[in-house]
Structure formats: C-alpha cells, structure tokens
Amino acid sequence: MRKKLSLWRRRRNEVEVARQNFDEAHYLSQCPKLAKDGKSAFRHFMKTGWREGLDPAPWFSVTAYLDAYPDIRHAGLNPFVHYLTQGKKEQRPLPDTGGGAQLPAGAQGDRARIEASGYFNAPYYAALKPPLPPGTDPLQHFMERGWRDGRRPSLLFDIEEFDRQMAGHRDEAVNPIIDLLDSGREGTIPLNTLGLTKAEIAVAPGNDEWQALKPLAQGSDAETVDIIVPVYRGYGDTLRCLYSVLSAETKTPAELIVIDDCSPEAELSAELERLAAMGLFTLLRNDKNLGFVGTVNRGMALHPARDVVLLNADTEVYGAWLDRLLAHAKTHTDIATITPLSNNATICSYPETLKNNNFELECTGGALNDAAFEVNKGLLADVPTGVGFCFYIRRKVLMGVGLFDEEAFAKGYGEENDFCVRASAAGWRNVLAFDVFVKHRGEVSFAEDASLSQQKGLQAVLKKHPGYLGDVHRYIAHNPGRDARARLDAMRLKKAMGETALFVSHDWGGGISKNIEDLRTALKLEGVGVVTIRSLEHKSEHISFDGGDGFFLPNLEELHVSADADLIQDLIGILSPKLIHIHSLVAFLPQARTQVLRLIGETGLPYYFTFHDYAPICPHGQFVTPAGDYCGEPDTDGCRTCLLAHPPVNGWVDIEAYQAEYREFIRHSAGCFAPSREAAMRANAFLGADICKAVPHHERTDLGPPTKPKSGKPGQSRDLRLAFVGALGPHKGRAILENCARDAWARELKLAFRLFGYTDTGSGGLEKLTIMGKYRGDQECADMLRAYAPDMLAFFSIWPETYNYALTLAFRLNIPPVVFDLGAMADRVRDTGFGHVLPREWMDDPARVNDFLLANPLKPLSNADHKKLVQTLEAQGPAKLLSSDHYHQIAK
Questions:
Q1: Residues 621, 615 contacting (CB under 8 angstroms)
Q2: What is each CA distance from 600 to 460, 605, 666, in whole angstroms?
Q3: Phi, psi (deg, nearest 5) at residue 336
Q4: Band (735; pLDDT cuts 50, 70, 90)
Q5: Is there a contact between 546 and 505 (Cβ–Cβ < 8 Å)?
Q6: Bridging pattern class, strands 335-341 and 390-393
Q7: What is the pLDDT of residue 68?
Q8: For the segment 111-157, what is each residue's pLDDT rounded down to a tens digit?
C-alpha cells in the first residue's frame, strides 16, 4: 500500500491532468456495473481500465492510440496519461477512429464564442498538416480534437505558447480559446511567439481631436485630388478613417468628399453632418441607397478635371501617403491606377500576399508606412488589377474609358478589376506602390453578404474579360513584389532592433541553437539585436532570416543563396550589422556553402567563427560516419578513404579542397572560438596557427534546486537509475544505450534506464528503457529530472564533443555524470572531479559498463562543493561580448 501511495504522490500532477480530462459518464457507459458497485470510475481506469481497452472520454480511444504508437504499448505506459502529459508536446496527433467525437453540452455556445473571438482562422487551420479529411468543417474539427492535438487555430493563437504562459492556471480539460476567454487574462499574456496581437478595434476620435483639425488645402481643379469616401455603416471605422485623412501630413492639394449612401446608422449620419458643418470635408448624401459603385461614380463625376482617390471607410492612412501616390503618377505619365500595400488587399497584401493579415505587427501602421518609404522609395510593380480599398485613378483615364460599370457590378466587387482591364486595353498601366502602406480593416461599410457579392462580382468580370484570371495567376506565379516585401520585413527588424549582429547557422536546434539564444540574450543587454541566417533542413541551398521571438517575417523564410544573392546582400545592407558570427554551415550543399562564404566575405564586415563541431575538418561534421561509427580522426588519405566508403549526406567533396576553403576563410576571420580547451587544440592543429580561442559557453543557472537522492541503496535494495537527456542518434551513443538496456534485461540487473527525450529510431521494445519524449527547454527537463531523482546522468557520445550543454545540467542539478574518455566532456568531468570517465574501449562492451556502474555508484556533491561548482559555471564565458575579450572588432 505504501508503495502505491508513494507512486501516486510522485505522479500527482499527471494524475490530476488525467482526472480533469476524464469523462466519468462516458466511462461508466462502457462498464455500468461500476456504477452499481459504487466504485470510482477514474481509479478503475487508471488501475486496470486502460489495459482492458476502456476509453476515458469520447474523444480518446485507448486501442487506437496504442496501435498508432507501439512504443507506448511496449513501454507499458497509460496511453491517456502519456498523451496528456507528453504526446501533445511531442505533437503526436490523436489517431482518427473513423467517427467524430461527441461534443459536450454547451458546445454550440462555445462555437459562437470561438468564432467571435478572432482567434480561429478557418483557411489557416485547414491548410495545416496533416490535411483534414474532405468535407471537414475546420472549426468543428478544432473543437472535437484539433485543440487536443495542439493543432494551431491561427497565427495569433499558439496553443503551446498559451499553455506555457498559463503555467499552473491552465484548465487542461477545456478548449484553450475558451479557457483564455474565461480566465480574464486576454490581452495580458502573449499568445504566440511572432509578436502578433489581435487587430485593434477602431475608436472614433473625441471632440477635442476634431477641433484641432483643419480641412485639406485645395488648389486649382487641375492640381487638386478628390479623396472620395463612400459610407454606409461602421461608426468607429468611418470616423477613424476620416480623421486619419485629415491629420496625415500631405502637401498635395486635396478635397475630402464623404458620401453618405443612406446609412442605416443614424448616429453615424448625424456625426458626419456635424463634422461637415465644421468645414472639415464636403458631405453628400444619396436620397436612396445606390451601393458602392453608384456612390463612387457620383463622387468621380463631381469635378471633371480632378484625379481621384477612392478610399474605403474602413481604412487608415498615414503621413505623406497621398504625396507618394501622386509622385508616382507624375513620374510615370502612363499610369492609370495606383494601389498601395495594405494588410488586407489580396495581391497587394503585406506581410503575406493574398491573405487578410488581420492582426497587429510589432510596429504601428504609421511606422510601417514610414519603413516602406525608406526601403522601397519609388518602387512600383505592374499589376493586372488594382484593389479598391485605396485606389488612385488618373482623370484622363476616366475620360477615356469611362466610370465604373454600375449596371454590371451593382453594389460592388469586381468594378475596379473591370476598370483596370479596360484601362490596360487602352494602353494604360495599373501599378502597385511598395512605398506606401494603408491599413484596411476590411469590408466594414458594405460588408453585408460580402462573400456572395465577391463571387457574383468575379463572375461579372469573367463574363466581360474571360482572360482576366489567367493574367492574375501569371502575376501571382511571377510574384514581382516578393523582394519589396522582403526588404520591408528586414527594415522592420532594423527599426525594432537598432544595432544588429548577424549570425549564420542551421535550423536543427540542439546546442548550437541554445548558444545562439544565450548570445542573443547577452547582446540584447548590450543594445544589439541578433538576426540569424539559417539554412533550411539538410542538403540546403536556401536560407531564412530569423529575428527570434516577436517577429513575423514570412518574406524572409526561403531565399536561394545564389538566385537571390543580390537580394540577400540588400537585406544584409538594410540590417547593417556590426559583425557576422558563423556558427555552422554544415547543412549546406557544397556549392551553396561556397556561395555563403563568398557573400559573407563581400560584405566587408568583421566576421567570427565558432567550432561547435568539426565540420571544417570532417564533411560528416563530427568524425562519425553515416553508418554510426567514430572514424578515429585519420589523416587526409584516411579521410579520402572514408568519404569513398561513406559519401557525405550533403554532397560529395574533395577533402583537400573542402578543408582548404574552410581553413582560408577562418584564417581571415576577426576571431575564432571553441567552447573548450580540447576543441580549440583540435581547431588550431587543423588551422596550422594558434588563432582559435577557448571560450566556454555562458549558461543560465537559475533552474531551481538540485535533485534529492532517492532513498535506498542503488543496485541493491532498488534499481540504479541511469538517466539520459536530449535527442539521441548514432553520434550521441543511442546504440550504446540500447545495448546496455538489453544487457541489463538479459542478466536481470538492478538497472533502470530512462531517456528524457527521444531517439532517431524510437528504441521501442526494450523492457529496461523508458522513453519520456520531447521536453520544452532546460527548465522542464530539470523539473522532470528532479522528480525522477536519477542516480547518474549518462552521456554516451561516440565523438569528441566540443562542449555539451546537458553535461552542465548534470552539474547544476548535482547529478553525478558518466562519460566516455573522449572530447571535452571527459576534460570537464576531470576538471570538476565529479563523475565517472569510462575508458573509450568500453563503448563496445555494455556488460562492462553496467557492471562498473553497479559496482561504483556515486553520491552527489556536498552542499558546499556543489555551491563552488555552480559559482564556477556562472563565472565562465566573457563578461561582455562587445569587448576586447570577445567581439573585439566591429563595424563602425
């Protein structure tokens, strides 16, 4: 009984999460005898029910989960508990059982709340992988099972980030969007790592703000532009739009003409009358509702000599917007129409084209308008059609091709497309201006039945112009605005960060990514932001620019290092980094790597290089062949023989040319680092010069208290607990771990192996090995290790690692480490005098490893000795990065 109670205490959090998600009524429907006997349904499920295939809730099938994930079956884990505590984090989707889950009572009300929340985007959700079955209602799927799978409902709402922010306050049994709305924390916590927030609701200006305004300055008819705003509904949006027009700095003579199309909102009509009486704008009112097209035609016919800008009542303009549009018209006299960038404007949308970017970025619309001008001044692209939310039209074109086709397009949608096609046929150009940004809240004034009206409008356009869609699709495929959007992404980064440093690495995660994040944090404290150029996956010729958390940069996600070389140089110029730091080039194909080195060299900026691994020496990166064998670090002839037997995954190389290219590049760097003495010695031997400096990584140490040893004698009265952490592949000793577990099982040794992480093969079916799955960061790993209280933390890497962050985790938590006598880990263990260093020859002898560990258990350090060790860890690494000790040379 004591053992059972102890088990329940240790698993209290897991049990509580399972209890919250357990559906007692559903469970009892499968075994009604329990209800008659008065027994606890939840206790029955946790003890025996799951083994009998009984389901804890209508949305979870025990049998389907175990069939889908045999490693969980082999490990003997409760599938429900595993899914709730680990499976979701590992992004294991719930298996499809063929029938929809039953939604609880009140689900229709929840559906309405989720729809109204702004956090669910059906097109976004449906486009995620794995694809939804044909005919699936995206929101219904999300409510039934998608949220439990961690399937993101929109860019705005990241379930994993929400869970992290809510910490212990998260109700695991409730849909996360509903949980947010009920928690009272909406608007107080970030819901994504992209810096995105819900679109602001337009608020009408106060009377003091209106009193401070003056009407737009007018000139002669020939030089004055009519800004025509048709109004139907939308009090806050309309008044905010008019205020933005009147308050935005502009030198162009203009008249603001507001046309009330018989608005059903009496309050809005009355306010328009009041403001017009103040002389702020010209107000016209239709005697009957004419719809959008009839209303703007009335406005365009008002002054036959003036150019016009049609402006939706749900837009917001910013400084010099009109001047910039007119500058294009004056420079290019063959232009008929001009459309600016906007968040919601189909082919003119930013940051994502063809999307309604209905959210706020890290900067305001005004700042975005300024950035667009700074980085894309004078830049245009010809488009098959403009977009009517903000639509400049030259008067000569109106005189030549006529007004909008009121008969064909009635209340709107399609009229500007038809007009643009007619103008193009007459020899005029329609353009997109990349140096102006206008916010568009989208379909407020004439929003009723917008989707149906859009479909009818498109049909009317195609009836008149059958080739229209072909022109649009060709434009989309060509995507002439991609570079301009990418430059604007980069300028947003520059404006937000100020001074920058540029790092280069892969996108695989691991120790390199952790070091980059630590350096990013340190440099931020010194006033410098970090942007990382990352290779995309293996065999890469593509890169992305990563600004870290807080930035949505879709136009910097996939650039070809050769085809986009000029653009990449432009982007680096916009960022104007003080320095470049190369962390890894291992994922690039050979020609792409050479191109990246050339691009870095051509910047003329000081650059630094870190030996995180041995990629400059070994094309495999770690002296480990694709077969999973340590090569022994042979000479050049030996390397050549190795490559013939094991061609590099990322492409064939001539070993001498490969090493020479790296050696030459690193020798010309402003500085070269390695995270350990042993790694620096290898690097300098390769470079033929003493230029690589040993600089240990600076690490955080605030991960909570050390572990408390488990009672009993390990290997005697209880199993000796051997823990492992991270992602274990061949180079990390996955095979050694598996062999040790097999030996322990075969000889019935008192040894237990537990991996807090995962392996490349899954490592299923090993009785002595429990795999806990992925964890989120050092803090969660530390918490799990404290709860498990291992006797030792083992690192069975078969290559000479340059550092290993997880080893520091063992030091910080006061868990004795076990390593092989190879690389920096062996040196670090010897330096501290804490842990076992096993002979390298034992890698192939699991029995000897197991016997030694059982015969030589280690105790944690005393409190005093552990405190000294932590102080040593805290002191390592440079105190300041932008100094003579580290980045001693930077661009002015």
A1: yes
A2: 52, 8, 12
A3: -95, -50
A4: very high
A5: no
A6: antiparallel
A7: 87
A8: 999 999 999 999 999 999 999 999 999 999 999 989 998 999 999 99
CB count within 10 Å of CB 576 equals 13
How many residues in the chain? 892
C-alpha span between 532 and 520 (Å, rounded): 10
Element (H, E) at 642: helix 636-645
Q: Which of 378, 261, 385 is nearest to 331 (CA)?
A: 378
Rg of the chain over Cα atoms, rounded to whole angstroms, equals 33
Contacts of residue 357, Cβ cutoff 8 Å, sequence gap at least 6:
343, 344, 349, 350, 351
499 forms beta bridges with: 528
**Edge-to-edge strands, sheet with 792-795:** 769-771, 751-759, 720-728, 792-795, 817-820, 836-838
Q: 199: which 2 tokens?
A: 């679109």
- Give pLDDT, residue 143: 94
CA distance 159 to 365: 27
* Residue 699 pLDDT class (50, 70, 90 cuts): confident
- Using an 8 Å Cβ cutoff, are 355 and 302 in contact? no
Query: What is the phi/psi pair of residue 434, to 5°?
Result: -85, 0
Whether pLDDT at 103 is above 60: no
Q: Which residues contact 38 (CB under 8 A, 6 or more apart)?
A: none
C-alpha closest to that of 814 among 740, 737, 703, 727:
703
Is the CB of residue 586 less than 8 Å from the CB of residue 658? no
Q: Determine the pLDDT at residue 444.
A: 42
- Rounded CA-CA distance 678/802 in Å is 7
DSSP secondary structure string, 457-489? Answer: HHHHHHHH-TTHHHHHHHHHHH-TTHHHHHHHH
Measure the CA–CA gap between 764 and 771, rounded to whole angstroms.
Answer: 8
Region 666-670 average pLDDT: 98
Model pLDDT for residues 617-655, shown as the tens digit of each residue: 999 999 998 788 899 999 999 999 999 999 988 889 999
Per DSSP, what are the bridge partners of residue 349? Answer: 342
CA distances from 299 to 289, 302, 306 (A): 14, 5, 11
What band does 173 get if pLDDT is binned at 50, 70 and 90? Answer: confident
DSSP H helical ranges for 301-364: 321-331
Q: What tens digit of pLDDT does each residue of 669-682 get?
A: 999 999 999 999 99
Look at phi and psi of residue 160 and say left if phi exceeds 0, alpha if psi is from -120 to 50, else beta: alpha
Concatenated DSSP letters for 720-789? Answer: EEEEEEEEE-GGGTHHHHHHHHHHHHHTT-SEEEEEEEEESS--TT-TTEEE----SHHHHHHHHHHHH-
**Mean pLDDT value across the chain:** 92
pLDDT at 8 over 50: no
**Residue 445's pLDDT band (cuts 50, 70, 90):** very low
Identify any residues that bridge with 344 across adjacent strands, giving them in sequence order. Answer: 356
H or E element: which one contains 39? none
pLDDT score at 539: 79
Strand partners, 257: 228, 282
Running DSSP on this structure, what letter comes out for residue 363? S
Q: Tokens in use for 412?
A: 């709107």
430, 383 contact by CB (below 8 A)? yes
Q: How many other β-carbons are positioned within 10 Å of the β-carbon of residue 398?
A: 21
* Cα 744 from chain centre: 42
3-state secondary structure 554-593: HHHCCEECCCCHHHHHHHHHHHCCCCEEECCCCCECHHHH
Q: Which of 573, 415, 357 is nearest to 486 (CA)?
A: 573
- SS3 for 228? strand
Quote the percentage of the chain above a pLDDT of 70: 96
Within 10 Å of residue 709's Cβ, how many Cβ atoms? 16
* Cβ atoms of 791 and 810 closer than 8 Å: no
Report pLDDT for 97: 66
